[in-house]
Amino acid sequence: MHIEEKLAPAPHGLRAAARPVITGSSHSFPGTRSSQDDLWQDFFHEHYEGFPLARRIFQNSGISARSTAVDPRAEKEVSRWSTGQRMARYIEEAVPLGKRTVTQALETAGLAPGDVGLLAVASCTGYTTPGLDLRLADELGMSSRVQRLFIGHMGCYAAVPSLGAVSDFVASRGRPAVLLCLELTSLHVQPPTKDIEQIVAHALFADAAAAVVLEPDAGSGYEVIDVVAVTDHSTADHMSWQITDLGFKMGLSPKVPDVLGQYVGEVVRDQLLAPHGLTPEEVTGWAVHPGGKRILEVVGERLNLPAGALDASYGVLDEAGNCSSPTVLMVLQRLPRTDGPVVAMAFGPGLTLYAALLRRSS
Questions:
Q1: Are 345 and 354 in contact, with CB atoms under 8 Å apart?
Q2: 274-289 pLDDT, tens per residue?
């Protein structure tokens, strides 16, 4: 039976809204995997001329290892590459990584590329036209009629609003959709500096891709119930991602955790959960973007989460680092498979907090 046959037309010619359900997921890493200690000893120690504060930042990052498309130990000139060189490398690395990730996600959902009605791609670390979305649709053998959406420059929180947009498509059109989040932050190593924000960025960020498949009215998976957001425009300069002649340069203020702490309780309790008659105590899973150890600590404190509630987030941070937009989807994939409400939450430039309410059914 074709997916369209499962949905009878609603009265007056309107289609009844379908329930968007995540039925497949996957994540992938580029080929180079390095321990945090080796990255410091073999590249960043010299890059920062042994700057003691830089060493402490790397040691206290909460990260054991990271995967990268560019290994600065082997390509030591990366910090001097032009933006054009970095964008050329982005496409070279992103297409096969994205293809592998989407293929795996479709396989877990039991769908073929031709079944997909919408392919959405979120990325803030590279740009090209024709875009990554178009190139991947062609590489994967998707229909020439597939709809495509590219979501750029939203940073670490991009997965959540993208999930909202893809869910709306599935609900209104009654067709499957795929969301791919792919970031190659290793392309943007900056020249040596004593700027603490740059050092923190280089200590935290890594590369990955994550994909989810959503289907209408599926019987098993995470149903997307709601998405909410808040932005504090007065602190927009606390997190930035600027295009320069030497790649993209990150600004990351140490004040970010404190600002997020002002909003996370209100957003989760009042905006996301209360309208659905829920409280944090009833949430069975927390997929919180691990922007850093302090951010996770603040979220746990403000929401009074029990011990172990953020283990999946800490685990992803330790084993993969902060991979920007794919990271919250990686945490979601790591959660234990228990029925009940789940909250996915991420943060980024703006300063913006996005949260989604999901409900798992088996």
A1: yes
A2: 999 999 999 999 999 9
